[in-house]
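To the wet lab folks,

You asked to see what we're planning to order before we commit. Fair enough. Below is the target structure as tokens, and below that is the sequence we designed to fit it. If anything looks off to you, flag it before the synthesis order goes out.
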């Protein structure tokens, strides 16, 4: 859950900064928001997927009794 929330927030910030600061590099005739979504999506989506897989693997190998301990 936190991975998806963090990934969405990070992606949103990257898209907004892409629109604000790098919109001039969009090809003529292409909307800036589409350019920013495509550009940032090409590396943000794989990064999110890899992070989610690693977190799932780490949680799956953790000892289960750590979750059950009362502090």
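Sequence we intend to order:
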């Amino acid at each position: 859950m936190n991975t998806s929330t963090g990934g969405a927030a990070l992606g949103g910030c990257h898209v907004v900064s892409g629109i604000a600061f790098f919109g001039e590099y969009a090809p003529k005739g292409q909307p800036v928001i589409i350019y920013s979504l495509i550009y940032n999506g090409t590396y943000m989506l794989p990064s999110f997927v890899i992070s989610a897989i690693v977190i799932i693997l780490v949680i799956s190998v953790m000892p289960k009794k750590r979750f059950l301990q009362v502090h």
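Structural context that might help your review: The radius of gyration is 18 Å. The chain has a mean pLDDT of 87.

Thanks,
Computational group
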